[in-house]
Amino acid sequence: MHGAARDTLVHANAVAERELSSAVDNPVVTLDGRVESNGNFHGAPVGYVLDFLAIAVADVASMSERRTDRFLDAGRSNGLPPFLADDPGVDSGLMIAQYTAAGIVSELKRLAVPASVDSVPSSAMQEDHVSMGWAAARKLRRSVDGLRQVVAIELLTAARGLDLRAPLGPAPATAAVRDAIRAAGVAGPGPDEPVSPQIEAVTAAVRDGVVPAAAEAVTGSLL
């Protein structure tokens, strides 16, 4: 499924590159001097792939949140404490972080509803069918922001899960990512503290490329 999301991104990039290289002037003066009427002014190709990307984003975020949920469920986490609470009674673990991820995923599913299918004729029917690409782009930006947060919550959760597995250690690349999260100022298991600053710190690490850079320092390029 992650491969399908990558394929969607590759397709969207191909469409964007093609459209950025196209001519939208009307008429067009060709290289051989002809003046031709040109109808390549509609934004549907871009609008469609922006909507397509929003679907992939929602699906990737949904899978990420389910992995987070599994970490926190003592019935499915293979021996980890409930909600990854280090000291139950004074430490609620990351229960609220998973609430946050679930809420964001629900919003991303709503944002995945296509904008490109919702065109209303205007200007006395002169503007009879528009791409709605601007609306698709605006909601995709919100979707990408939400995906970063959901992935950050998974990373925050996974890092705590790894610490609670001690003395067992993770693979080198996984350890490098965990260490990068700790270097970002996110503490390991301990007493309750506000989780929002931790989510924001890891979200910034995802946004700025710190997470893949930490892994690639061990593995080489992941692309």
Describe the fold and architecture.
The protein is mostly helical and 223 residues long. It has one domain: Fumarase/aspartase (Central domain) (Fumarase C, Chain A, domain 2), CATH 1.20.200. It is 59% helix and 2% strand. The protein has helices spanning 2-20, 44-72, 95-111, 133-164, 172-183, 196-207, 210-219, and strands spanning 28-29, 35-36. A two-stranded antiparallel sheet has the order 1-2. The two termini are 16 Å apart.
Keywords:
223 residues; mainly alpha; Fumarase C, Chain A, domain 2; two-stranded antiparallel sheet
Describe how the helices and strands are arranged:
Layout: H1 2-20, E1 28-29, E2 35-36, H2 44-72, H3 95-111, H4 133-164, H5 172-183, H6 196-207, H7 210-219
Antiparallel strand pairs: 1-2
What is the structure about, briefly put?
With 223 residues, the chain is mostly helical. 59% of the residues lie in helices and 2% in strands. Helix 1 (2-20) packs antiparallel against helix 2, helix 3 (95-111) runs antiparallel to helix 4 (133-164) and helix 4 crosses helix 5 (172-183).
The CATH topology assignment is Fumarase C, Chain A, domain 2
Helix and strand content put the structural class at: mainly alpha
What is the CATH level 1 assignment?
Answer: Mainly Alpha
- How many domain modules? 1
- How many DSSP E strands? 2
Oligomer kind: single chain
> What would you report as the Rg, rounded to the nearest angstrom?
23 Å
Second rung of CATH, namely the architecture: Up-down Bundle
pLDDT averaged residue by residue: 92
Write the H/E string, N to C. HEEHHHHHH
Fourth-tier CATH superfamily name:
Fumarase/aspartase (Central domain)
Shape, please?
elongated
Number of helices: 7
Strand order of the largest sheet: 1-2
Q: What is the strand content? A: under 5%
What helical percentage do the residues reach? 55-70%
Largest sheet: 2 strands, antiparallel
Terminal Cα span: 16 Å
Q: What are the low-pLDDT stretches, counting only 5+ consecutive residues below 50?
A: none
